[in-house]
Amino acid sequence: MGITCEEVWRDISDYVDDELDQKQRAVLEEHFAKCRHCAAVLEGTCNVIRLYRDERVLAPPKGFHDRLHARLNQKLNQGPDERIHPSRRAVLAWALAAAAAVPLGFALFSAKRFILPGLEHQSPTGSPGSPAVKGLVAVSLDANNKIFHIPNCPYLHNKLKFLSVEEAIRQGYSPCPICIGKRKLEKKG
Amino acid sequence: MTDNTESNARNDRIRATEENLIGRILDGEKDLFLELIRPYQRTVYATLITMLRSKEDAEDVTQDVLLKALARLHQFRREAAFGTWLIQIAINETRMRKRKMRHGTMFSLTSAADDDGAYVPKDFADWREIPSEALERLETREALAKALALLEEHYRLAFILRDVNELSITETANVLGITRGAVKTRLRRARLMLRDILSPGLQQGGQVGLAFKEVRNPWE
Fold first, then answer.
1. Are A85 and A94 in contact (CB under 8 A)?
2. Complex ipTM, two decimals?
3. Chains A and B: how many Cβ contacts under 8 Å?
4. Hey, which residues does A147 pair with through a beta bridge?
5. In this structure, which CATH number among 1.10.10.60, 1.10.1740.10, 3.90.320.10, 3.30.300.20 belongs to the domain B5-100?
6. Chain A 89-148, CB below 8 Å of chain B: which residues?
């Protein structure tokens, strides 16, 4: 049984989302095979989704990751917050300590920011002394190629292992042209 | 309804990795938080910039949201995916800010009327694929941002949650507090409208189509 173009447009989005039952799918596919217009609408819809999914689109501005990580690191380095009810004297002691820590913290924070700006993960070259989390790259354990990726690369799949760039290179992995190549391009641009 | 099984398997893997990370962060390995949020930095920012429309505001709120997520990580209930939980915080936070800033019109997710009427794609059969390589050009990226900004907010949000944050339809419905049916209606509209706006030969608004040179970033 045939289906009109209007009916196809109504269902096209659900088709893309795989929200139709098998029978409806088959009817739509039969229509796409015959109707050039609807096939173009489908193609365009998929293209739109693919484009917006790309991480270059609506991407954060330059310096975003540095600023974010600086703020998070500051928070993370505050240590565990203990929520026991402190006595008055303890409150006073803490207040004094805190007052002393502010300039110190600020000094550390600025030092980190200005002296070691390369620690951020955007530069996957990493540095030997950086904490474990930074400069990590990911590899797919069951992939048959030896390529390392930035951990959120869409070309990563299956079982992941995280390791440092140095380690990855030592083990014979080479950088993913998609995620790492792209970052390089972005930096140039 | 059936989501496709391949992406389900992928989501299960991501979820397992994230739950492991969250457990370790809560056990004291706080540095791993950066690892946990890495895949979401852009999607949270992308969502917020479509709601706030200024790069500075979007960046500020993104930072606040991620810090909030860190502080509340112990409240994370594992029945939701981490990404869904995070974007929920982001949206709530933004709604609150907008209310405080008294942006002319009140921000509303539910009262927005859904245009349930059929949307007729423009008669434009020779859709020319926009290749991913075109995204290397700033003007292409700006045209995409501008096209999205032309949609009404309820369409924009459904689209950004489902197609940029890659939430499922059910998760999108939960985050927005609307039905799955409403999500599907909004998605249909949003996707078809974006396709029309971006059609190279179609002069919607006279300036957005990718064939045009002069495209300005609406958020600047």
1. no
2. 0.83
3. 157
4. A174
5. 1.10.1740.10
6. 121, 131-134, 136
